[in-house]
């Protein structure tokens, strides 16, 4: 059996984004491959969401390239990238508020470019939507309005909309934010099952223990640049990462714990499952 890694499904080469005087992403190179999950961490404003926006056509790069299956789709519109199999979730969930949960997902299914040449009808899109809702744990909630969903269910809907596109590449922007600790493991199990199905995954996340649990590789962004990348355990014990990111997080938790000294606190300082997506 060949030990060659699979060809990358999504590639960035020298990808940069400048907003006026601010370089939000600077010369990003990455390869996303089937059955691999790249975890992306970094402080607020590091450029994580901008990187996803660049990879999905939601932001036009200032320089650099985006390749999907080897095809140059730099600056292509989001629908074109979605059609090519690149889906994403948004850090701030974006349901169509005038539609129920089922129709939100069915609309995405109608837009799917896969299987190649498929003609989606309302009936087939609805079937795909029902299957997708089941898969993400929203079975039976299709008739609800998005506004009626809990935070966790709104995140599940965001994921269902992405999955209904039948992507080959999925970029997740803080899908665990706002989940309660007990909701994180089932979400990770679902994401892991997507990896086993063959998707290439990138997951931006502040819940560090989730990244350690699931990522094949971790990339740390800082001021728009890759500070380091590699095996999760190696990256997370890197002094530069602790200084730029983890140290500040732990310092914040220490300060919070100190401010609660009048009450008994049992929250461990090193438990990063704040699960609210907040950072220092
Ligand atoms: N449309 C925009 N116009 C101007 N500046 C922007 C725009 N989008 C992002 N920025 C800036 O680019 C930098 C990177 O932002 P980005 O949202 O990518 O950070 P992030 O790593 O996702 O942060 P967070 O962890 O808070 O989500 C920030 O300084 C942000 O203010
Ligand atoms: Mg962000």
Supply database-style keywords.
six-stranded mixed beta sheet; binds adenosine-5'-triphosphate; 10 strands; globular; binds magnesium ion; 9 helices; four-stranded antiparallel beta sheet; 280 residues; alpha/beta
Detailed description of the structure:
- The strands form two sheets. A six-stranded mixed beta sheet has the order 6-7-8-3-9-10, sandwiched between helices. A four-stranded antiparallel beta sheet has the order 2-1-4-5, covered by helices on one side.
- The longest helix is centred in the C-terminal third of the chain and has 21 residues, at 239-259.
- Helix 6 links the parallel strand 7 and strand 8 (200-204).
- It has helices at 48-55, 78-83, 101-111, 122-136, 151-163, 181-196, 208-214, 232-236, 239-259, and strands at residues 10-19, 22-32, 37-41, 63-68, 71-72, 86-88, 169-173, 200-204, 217-222, 225-230.
- It has 280 residues and is α/β, with parallel strands linked by helices.
- The protein contains nine helices and ten strands.
- The radius of gyration is 19 Å and the shape is globular.
- Mean pLDDT is 88; it is low at 262-280.
- The structure holds adenosine-5'-triphosphate (ATP) and magnesium ion (MG).
- Magnesium ion is lined by residues 48-49, 91.
Describe the structure concisely:
This protein is an alpha/beta fold.
Secondary structure tally, helices: 9
Main β-sheet, spatial strand arrangement: 6-7-8-3-9-10
Bound molecules: adenosine-5'-triphosphate, magnesium ion
Q: Report the oligomer.
A: single chain
Separation of the first and last Cα atoms: 46 Å
Which descriptor suits the 3D outline?
globular
| Cα radius of gyration in angstroms | 19 Å
* Percentage of residues in DSSP E strands: 15-25%
Which structural class do the helices and strands define? alpha/beta
Please provide the ordered H/E string of secondary-structure elements: EEEHEEHEHHHEHEHEEHH
Show unreliable segments.
262-280
| Biggest sheet descriptor | 6 strands, mixed
Mean pLDDT: 88
Helical content band: 25-40%
How many runs of DSSP E, i.e. beta strands? 10
